[in-house]
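Dear Dr. K.,

Following up on our conversation at the group meeting, I've run the structure prediction for Leucine--tRNA ligase from Candidatus Yanofskybacteria bacterium GW2011_GWA1_41_6. I'm pasting the input sequence below exactly as I used it, so you can double-check it against your construct before we proceed with anything downstream. Let me know if the numbering doesn't match what you have in your notebook.
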Amino acid sequence: MSKYNPSKIEKKWQQYWEDKKLYQAEDFGHDKKNFLLLVEFPYPSGDLHTGHWFAFSVPDIYGRYLRMNGFNVMYPIGFDAFGLPAENAAIKHNIHPRDWTKKNITKMSKQLRSMGAGFDWSREVSTIDPEYYRWTQWIFIQLYKDGLAYRAETLVNWCPQDKTVLANEQVIDNKCDRCGSVVEQRNLSQWMFKITSFADRLIDDLQDLDWPESTKLAQINWIGRSEGAKIKFPVSIRQLADQFPEPETRNQKLETSVEVFTTRPDTLFGATFLVVSPELAQKWMGMGWEASQEVKDYISQSLKKTDLQRQEETKDKTGVSAGFNAINPMTEKEIPIWIADYVLGHYGTGAIMAVPAHDQRDYDFAKKYGLPIKEVVLNEEKFIGVANEKEGVLISSGQYDGMTSEEARKKITQFLKEKGLGELHKNYRLHDWVLSRQRYWGVPIPMINCSDCGYQPVPETEIPVKLQPLKDFMPADDGRSPLAKAGKWLKVKCPKCGKNAERETDTMDTFVDSSWYYMRYTDPKNEKEFASQEKMAKWLPVPLYFGGAEHNTMHLLYSRFITKALRSQNLIDFSEPFFGRRNHGFIMDSTTGQKMSKSKGQAVDPDEQVAKYGADTMRMYFAFMGPY
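The predicted structure tokens came back this morning:
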């Protein structure tokens, strides 16, 4: 008997499967139940490594199981080909990103085919294909028309090495999640998606999904919904003339009261000072507040720090007195206003009421600066040197003494509402999605800037706006995209008035590309729409999606938002992209304990193992090496 030759046997049967179109899913003309089995499509920034095999092997086994049980299974594959990983690799190897990416797609396609997995290659998509990103641009335009895409000045995370903006989700421990550089803060005009408009639905609809509880909890915590009240603290009238010399400034409503958001209105009698963010204090200065030099210096230094630096639990609290007071609306007593960097300008109202007896950060701050501490809630905890943050029964709170925290919250909020000083309110940690990227290798944002008409969408008959083949695609330090160098492409006519105008030069965050790719799999060759309603109805929402937990608060959240945005415009008839989700584990580097990654240079090429043991052996090994 001849020795088993995996290479010869596997090639024979893989060719047979391809000739018979064994794994091409049928949209119509059968009585089987459809099942779209989805895996996260890979970045073609280097060779396929064994981590990809691990990610794809077990879903492939499950797909075969479903087929043997009578399902019509679609197991599609494609490439998430734009973005920093591919661009940085191209720069490193002194090659154009287009050539680098296409070369890797060709190689990775060959490697993926050698796996012997049941991929439906007839549905392959690549995000760098103009016929794909044409619809990415079309989706952007629909969101713009619906008020869900907008441009605004905002404080952003800037990676000095990659020379581009990072979303909050792409900053880990104050460092860029790709290159590890310390992130800076910059004020830039950026394109954003209004994901906050869907904050409640993004939380509430999780209950209908078959997802790991850890993934659901990660999204709930990231969105950070808090229910409480907005409360106005009037500014001491006798001090306004000194702080705001101009009468018209003093008369502005914003400056006659400081508004805070709190989840604990029951502790209002214990609010002994206010703390405002450096951002809010800076805004006051722009409206005429004559701050002291000490305040100006503190604000300037604070605004150079990132959110993570400002909110580190181990960080010593710092602050400076604003020099004037507000009035507690319940006690009617004056309390000092302070400025401190642990309060963030983009969260809530940019100001907090400080209740040091019942909040540890406020307690630490009060102890450092000798500010009053007043206990107003009693429970089983003793107030001995640390804040008592639990609910209980009110004391030292006038007519509310003896009420439970829950009862007092309702009563106090109602009282404030009647006085015009408060109202029920929901607050969120979630920010709008900053999607502008000042890099070359991405989808051009389909907008035109006219000096008379402002920003106008590119006419839909003129998309795709194709990425120009620049020779010099290196990022710049001035914050402008390399596409600003594409002179002839840059100059266009305004679609509204016909005057000279310029194209937007920023490209889109690649998470926009991957937020809808699962829809395109259902109808990848459609030239008239991103996918037909009829075909999407056959396959979507996706019944089961395999991927990594690192996408809990990025790709998964963004894809849910885009789906809900399209549903709100009746462009699709489902409101969740993925009904089922399973997070796989990782292949670890045995020497460093880190996740295997091409970007970290410790990926293992599976080709050698396939040549030695065969693809079947590799796939079975991954299936049984440990919990998936």
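Two things stood out to me. Residues 10 and 30 are 30 Å apart (CA to CA). The chain has three domains: 6-127+511-624, 136-204+432-510, 226-427.

Best regards,
J.T.
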